[in-house]
Amino acid sequence: MRSLPVSRPRRARTALFAVALASVAALGSACSSSASPSNAAAGKVDAVGAENEYADVISQIGGRYVEVSAIMSNPNTDPHTFEASPQVAAEVSGAQLVVRNGVGYDDFMAKIEQDDAGANRKVLDVQTLLGLPDSTPNPHLWYQPSTMPAVAAAIASDLEALDPSQAAYFKANLAAFDASLEPLDRAIAQLKTRFGGHAVATTEPVADYLLTAAGIVNATPWAFQADVMNGTDPSPQDVSAEQALFTGHKVAAFVYNQQVTDSLTESLLTLAHRNGIPVVGVYETMPTPGYTYQKWMLAEVSALSNAFGSGTSAPTL
Description:
By secondary structure, the protein is of the alpha/beta class. The chain contains 14 helices and 9 strands. It has a 5-stranded mixed sheet with strand order 1-3-2-4-5, sandwiched between helices. A 4-stranded parallel sheet has the order 7-6-8-9, sandwiched between helices.
């Protein structure tokens, strides 16, 4: 695993965030910073995922025939204010396959690609793949259960185009990936059956797609979520409405973005504890080590189920 320094974000929202540096983490074996001759000789495709959850899926589909890096893999940074360093630009420059989220979440990737457009580079924009407009309010697309099957299929297709000799291998890995999502699908269905209709409070819309899929009601005003996500101060009215969810015991759990916090969200965390409301921590960047995308999502679903079923908090994974 190798880390590259990147420039500091524009806005620090926690003490850790103020000092943390985002990393480019190699998945699998150590990776080079460009499409190196050694990789070509080894028959490997150089690939980059803007977020480590996408890099993880590339790694699962490409297996031993890809060399994968993740640009954003540090859970102590705010992805919305990430600024790419020259080292990151060099990493992307050498990539034959790039996967980015879109919806304004990782715009720095598009700029790098425009400045250095590789003739044979495959760029998979998840927003475009899903047919989503730029006005899509929630950019956390990987929490939508239908996203990663589509992403994995597109990755397999791109890898087959880049390395046709391994098409059967990529197809087999895609089938294995799809099968590995079945426990997650069952867990979401069970969560909906048991606890559909339960209400939660949130700080940001990080896990909103997952909550919706499970029939969970997000009682937090959308304007509050959007303001916190975008680093602006929510209105006093929205803050009061959010606080009333805790003091009035109107929610069964507090879904808390552990990755990006500030004094307001921390005060809500205290309020949740004071009122006996279980806390479920969620992340924008896949926690590492020890997680794949599937294991990460399963852990979040399990934490929600435990919060509703037994009042158990899981503030961190």
